Amino acid sequence: MKRILIVKVTSMGDVIQAQPIVSDLKRAFPGVEVDWAVDESFAEIARWNPGTDRVLCAPLRRFKKARRWSDFRAIWQSIAELRAHRYDVALDIHGVYKSAIIAFLSRSRKRLGYRNEHLGERGAAFAYTGRFAPTRDRNAWSGMRETVSTALGYPLDNPPDYNLHVPAPTRPLVDTGGRRLAMLFHAASKDDKKWPASHWIAIAQELVRRGFHVVVPWGSQAERSEGLEIVDQVEGAELLPQLSVTEIAQVIAASDFVIGVDTGFVHLAHALGKRTVMIFIATSRETFENNVPFRSVSIGDGNSVPPVAEALAAIDHVHADPLGLGGQGKSVAAA
Questions:
Q1: Fold entry, domain 180-320
Q2: Which of 45, 183, 233, 317 has a CA-to-CA distance to 115 between 20 and 30 Å?
């Protein structure tokens, strides 16, 4: 096996959680080159993994919204880059039309994708020469690794190695005044995934009481307004300026603790080995949770709003570390 293409186009959390596959492949096939096809929106995340030899990206999301000629030209150029090498195998672990087309356009005679019942879009099946079924006895993140290992015939005998190296900032992004840094990710893509502002205020107040410098990031004006509602009620809490994806990742890398709803940046915190609490309100905890004893904990049942007390118990758990297990499980180095 000389060269493998992984196709996982979106979204942020999925791209992050699929990164251990690169380390798995490098371990299973010494000397193999691994390329990654991803939407331009998340290309920088894939580039943080030094194990990836080439990151192939195109503005697929942006073209779908705006239909601009410049984006179409960028997509066309990315196809030429994709076909610059012939792959021994192309692995579509996304399972929709756009990912299947990428696999089909690659110079690989062996193109593997999900069986029909597991595809996000049934028509994607046209691209594949072989099929696999996702492993269902574990959560989605473990399942991705096991699915690929089964498809290519190598064992998994190691914890996930995300191997993400976030570039160091050129200037300090947060002045903590010597206090430990805690980030609160209150924002979510859908309203039903959000935790009440009153709950966030209570958590922020408790973290400040424990000596943390609490910061709240945001992306849209609506998220900024929601963040202001929190920090206005918590003396010492800080609403961050609008930051890029890389800048937010840099603040996460500098943080001592991260708490947030089921969103990509909280998955990144877990991948970077941070003490993390993830809150599930409207998505399946069983499917998407992160769990490393005394380091990364998920709460909520995915059908109701977890109380503040449950979050506080989780915070106590990730900071207890009675046996020095906080770093258990090889996760990530931040540059």
A1: Rossmann fold (3.40.50)
A2: 45
